[in-house]
Amino acid sequence: MTWIRPDPGGRPPGLIRSGVDPLGSVFAAFIALSVLALPLMTARPNRIAEGTSLMAWSALPSGHALALGGVLGLAAPLLALRVAPRLRVAAGAAALLLLCLTAGWAADHLTAPGDRYARVSPDAGWWLAFVSAGLALGDGLARLRPGPGVRIALLAAGALLTGLALGSGFWDQLSVLREYASRSDTFGREVRTHAGLALSSVAAATAIGIPAAILARPVPALRTALLAVLNVVQTIPSMALFGMLIAPLAWIGRTVPGAAGLGIAGIGAAPAFVALFAYALLPVAAATVAGLEAVPGPVRDAARGVGMTGRQCLFQVELPLARPAILTGVRIVLVQNIGLAVIAGLVGGGGLGVFVFQGISQNAGDLVLLGALPTVALAGAAAILLDAVIDASRLREQRP
Fold it and tell me: What tens digit of pLDDT does each residue of 369-391 get?
């Protein structure tokens, strides 16, 4: 399907085709529903009190409410129609930007000067519109098919703009940032702990899972046994696995000389790391086996025909061709472990789960968001980065 249609009369090609885009119309309908029928913001006198849900025209000054309606009213038809991908990207980006501005405007409007206890947070309408606009933007970018370098540049630009906005104080009146202000001394440490647990567990699983899969692949019985054992581990619920590790790790910490000095104990980072490592092994090993099995037989025969040894064939032919599949497995486990690392907060392992479970115990939803939103952002950034690396690897292999 082409988006630039030449005009029979010789006029310049247009950007809009006739007809309705099915997926875009869903995004447009959700955006319209969120603004017209759902509350945009919630205002509370303090962090745990019952809140008052406010529609857009009550949560914003009249001028800002008109700006919100005007921009979203223009963006929604562009998403619903069959338009060029760059128009779809522009519409999604404009809606997303205005919703971010709306959150700051509403927080300033609804918070009395000097009030340190009031809490203003986005309600269902804002979240539905934000997610819909974000998905519409992602859909437009996917249709444009940007290269790996462009995707990484867009990710860096988004992170830079978000950092500048946070540093400017524009959103300081929002409830989630008020929660951050009271925990700013520990937030950075928990983010580093969270990222460290996810990255180290994936690195360890990669260092062990890939060699294990390489050694087991030539022997069908050994390969089947390896994947079967790892599959059993994968089926254990995360909470159960964390709990099962407490007793044996506590025993090791008490009885093995030097284990306690290394941080091995029944609670803390040790059970969190071991559980995340165990969950990461199956996708890494399975992706390695699948990638090596996908190498065409004639390619192996050609490598042997030019005199390559088995070792040379593995490292110079098979593994390079299997690299995209292996990296796909690493991408899966990294995103998975960034999310699962939240559970480490329950066993004293630290990380962003500390804020999530504190918020649940205190009935403070915005404190939950203080842990959940950075987790989602880290997982999304990791997925985009590794997708770009995988595509770059595929492009490199396709070059003559």
Answer: 999 999 999 999 999 999 998 88
